[in-house]
Amino acid sequence: MLVGLLVAGHGVQKVSSHLGGRGLEGGTEEFRADGFRGGVLTALAAGGGQIGSGLLLVVGFLTPLAATGVIGVM
């Protein structure tokens, strides 16, 4: 449960300014600095994947799929 909350929180930071995040602009800059193309789309996909996978882990639903999602975005 704790891991799911941490992953979901990290996703929220990627796409908004909540929880100390730099918002979507910050997430976009982070991905571009790491050499990824796409910027906004990449940040939204990663943040959405982290939020969704983290919440699935929290509730214990589709755990293998949720764990695969966490591995994929981390």
Description:
By secondary structure, this protein is mostly helical. It has one domain (2-73). It contains 4 helices and no strands. It has helices at 2-15, 23-33, 40-59, 63-73. Helix 2 crosses helix 3. The longest helix has 20 residues, at 40-59. The model has no long low-confidence stretch (mean pLDDT 90).
What keyword list fits this structure?
mainly alpha; globular; 4 helices; single chain; 76% helix; 74 residues
Mean pLDDT: 90
| N-to-C span | 17 Å
Q: Note poorly predicted spans.
A: none
Helical run tally: 4
Helix/strand order: HHHH
- How many strand elements? 0
Oligomer: single chain
Structural class: mainly alpha
Shape verdict: globular
* Helix percent band: over 70%
State the major sheet: none
Spell out the blueprint of helices and strands:
Elements: H1 2-15, H2 23-33, H3 40-59, H4 63-73
Short description:
The chain is mainly alpha-helical and 74 residues long. The chain has helices at residues 2-15, 23-33, 40-59, 63-73.
